[in-house]
Each structure stands twice: as C-alpha cells, then as structure tokens.
Amino acid sequence: MAAEGATALLLHDGWRTVPGLDTQADLDQLLGQALDSAASELAQSLGPDLDAWRWDDVHIMVSPHPLATALPERSDLHPPVDGCPGDGDTVRAGAVAPIHGDRSSHASVGRYVFDVADWDNSGWVVPHGVSGVRGSGHDLDQRSAWLACELLPMAYSAEAVAHHGQATFELSP
C-alpha cells in the first residue's frame, strides 16, 4: 500500500487499523493519557510553572571532541554544553534522535546566505568557530551567533577582507 493510501486509511477509517483502537473514544482516551504523561514528565524535569518551560532547557547541544572522549585528561577539549534552538524540521536545524533523548544529536554545520548582487553583503555562521584549535580564541567565536541564528559578515572584495580580517598569513613553497 502506498504511503498516501496508508495515511488516507488512518485518517478516514477512524484509526480502526491500529490494534486496540476500535472507537473514537479509545483514541481520545489514549491521546489524553499520552498528553497527561508527557505533561507530568515535563513538570518533573522543568517544574510546575509552564511559563518557565523553555525548549533549550531540555534540548541541548553536545558536541564531544573525539580526543577528549578518548583521553579523559584532555576533557578541556570538549566545547561547552548549551541549550539549542530548532528541531529537525526548521532552518535552525537541531534534530533529536530518540536514542539520545532530547539532546540535539545533529545540527546544521553552517548557515550561509549569499547576496549575488553584492557578495560583500553575504553572511555565514558555524556552530563552533573558524578554528579547530581549542583555546585559540577562534574555536568558539561563532557559537553564540549560531545559537542566536545570527549571521556574520562574509568578506569577498579586497576592501571587505581588509576591513574584517584579523590576521594575514603568507604561504610560500
């Protein structure tokens, strides 16, 4: 059966194809129980004040560094754990996998916006920083902008590079 057919069957046949759900009352009861259970679990972890509940209190970004994971004495290589916006269906991709709970198990590596009429008006951001060297000052320099879904200038012209550049490196053979 095509997925389209299965969806139509579930929607138009009153969910009777699901074992144990023979009536709309059964479905209503099951959905009510699921909602009550979810609300109870959230209240246990986030407290009773619904206005204080925040997605990024449970949806956190964990990006373990492979060397820090292998060598406990290098745990300083792990980036910080931060609350993370988004989910698997948003531009601010920060999806979860049930095996990891609410932890953001993967996210966009970078976000880019290109203005082809004015390349210097383009922007980008990556979740950590422009350097993979911990403690370099550029290892986490874009993290807060990435979490806030902001873009940083992407320089193309010589003038823009001179304005935004912080260092110059010359490679020679």
Q: Compute the CA-based radius of gyration.
A: 23 Å
Number of helices: 6
Number of E-type strands: 7
Structural class: alpha+beta
**Order of helical and strand elements:** HHHEHEEEEEHEH
Q: Which residues form runs of ≥5 with pLDDT under 50? A: none
Draw up the topology in text.
Layout: H1 3-12, H2 24-46, H3 55-58, E1 60-61, H4 66-70, E2 82-83, E3 94-96, E4 104-107, E5 111-113, E6 123-125, H5 143-147, E7 152-153, H6 158-164
Antiparallel strand pairs: 1-2, 3-4, 5-6, 6-7
From the structure above, extract its key features.
single chain, 173 residues, alpha+beta, 3-stranded antiparallel β-sheet, two-stranded antiparallel ribbon, 6 helices, 31% helix, elongated
Explain this structure:
- The protein has 173 residues and is α+β, with helices and mostly antiparallel strands.
- It has helices at residues 3-12, 24-46, 55-58, 66-70, 143-147, 158-164, and strands spanning 60-61, 82-83, 94-96, 104-107, 111-113, 123-125, 152-153.
- A hairpin with a 7-residue loop joins strand 3 and strand 4.
